[in-house]
From TrEMBL:
NCBIfam families per UniProt: folK (TIGR01498)
Record organism: Thalassovita litoralis
Enzyme Commission numbers on file: 2.7.6.3
Enzyme class, UniProt record, top EC level: transferase
Protein's UniProt name: 2-amino-4-hydroxy-6-hydroxymethyldihydropteridine pyrophosphokinase
Family: Belongs to the HPPK family.
Keywords, alphabetical: ATP-binding, Folate biosynthesis, Kinase, Nucleotide-binding, Transferase
Any single biological process term in GO: folic acid biosynthetic process
Domain called 7,8-dihydro-6-hydroxymethylpterin-pyrophosphokinase: residue spans: 94-105
SUPFAM superfamilies, per database record: 6-hydroxymethyl-7,8-dihydropterin pyrophosphokinase, HPPK
Amino acid sequence: MTIDQEIVLALGSNQSFGAQGPGDLLRHALELLTKAGLRILRQSRFYKTPCFPAGAGPDYVNAVVTAATALPPAELLECLHRVEAELGRERQTRWAARTVDIDLIAYGQRVLPDRDTFDHWRNLPLSRQMQDAPDQLILPHPRMQDRAFVLVPMRDVAPDWFHPVLGRTVAQMCESLPKESLQEVEAI
């Protein structure tokens, strides 16, 4: 018997696809994830957030959900990529505008593939982050603690989730962000 694992997903969109705008695309992505076997447990409000990095495109609509899945991490990532592709996502340029982006933020308390690799990606300078992408799944997401567009909606659904490496809750990480970053994330 396979035991479901609680996961955290961050969703974002700043493009339209067909007649669907960013908010519609996030709702559609959640429907497709449910059809793929994920059980959505909690869903944040939708938030309007500035594009990152600045100037890379229109503002985003972001949300975070917790879900339960029996899929192992690599298969789950493939499932997320399939849903993105079905909704028009094309992976051409790092941090480019996109119809939908679904990031696996956390898979329970797992650190993948190992602590050294996680630390390497977490400590990568911004200039390298803009060019380099890992060729394997890194969990928890190595820069979640720096991103208000992830932490603010995640605080809606998992404020007490405890980062297995940093030793802090989502609420604590959110409180550590600059006020300006927090103010840029507006509930819609």
